[in-house]
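hey so i finaly got around to running the thing on Universal stress protein from Flavobacterium sandaracinum. pasting the sequence first so u can double check i didnt mess up the copy paste, my clipboard has been acting weird all day
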Amino acid sequence: MKKILFPTDFSDVSKNAFIYALQLAESINAEIVTMHVYQLPQANYVNVSEYLHEIYDVTELSNFENYKDEVPVLRKIAEANNLGHIKISHALILGNLVPEIKKITENENFDFVVMGTKGATGLKETFFGTVATKVMNDVNALVLIIPEHCLYQPINKMLFLTEYKSEDTATFSTVLSLSDIFKAPIDCLRVGTSQGGILNDCRSDWKVLMEHKEVVFHSIEGDDVEGIILNFIALHKINLIAMHVYHRNFFEKLFEISLAKKLAFHINVPILGIH
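ok and heres what it spat out for the 3d tokens, dont ask me to read them lol
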């Protein structure tokens, strides 16, 4: 059985992302391990030593009680989506979030990490908004990021952002495998300037991998890379973006573009980072 790690901070953003974790578990026959990572308080005031143990005990107990209260909430979300049969277990861990995610995915062979994020819009960033790209960069499992207002939709159309280079071939193979699971056709898209040609174009080699699969190659010239991609997503009704992790700058920019452009295109699409 495959394994999905679901880091949670108990927020609405996180609970919304949990539906994607459940649906993914159903699609790939996986179990889910929810994970909450907490830190002990920094105690810098005078004469703290005599109270330190008590402070730590209270903090740990508080986190345990919060987590214990949240477990039934997650189970209710599963049952409300007719996915109560999915195996779900839970881990409460003391530490720093990104290193702990990295450690547990490596030690226990998780296939996916699914987590919610809130974009940087000039307002105060949430807990996950500050770490989503770090997790995508540092963790070797497939990392599925669910934006704040992304309401669950079945994966019917996938977009693979690529430069048609040989280093994208393994990632393309992974996307093809997911296409089989979701029964979803794939649009491959490269966006570049008119000055920048495609070197070592691998599309002819990729066609060997595509037998009996619905894949369309696109290449669009233009300087407004993010704008072109957002327009493509809206036009082609994309509901999952996949990318090789070295394209992560697009992920960062996607949540930093102007609010007007966000509202215009309603970008609420899951993003899958693949090492």
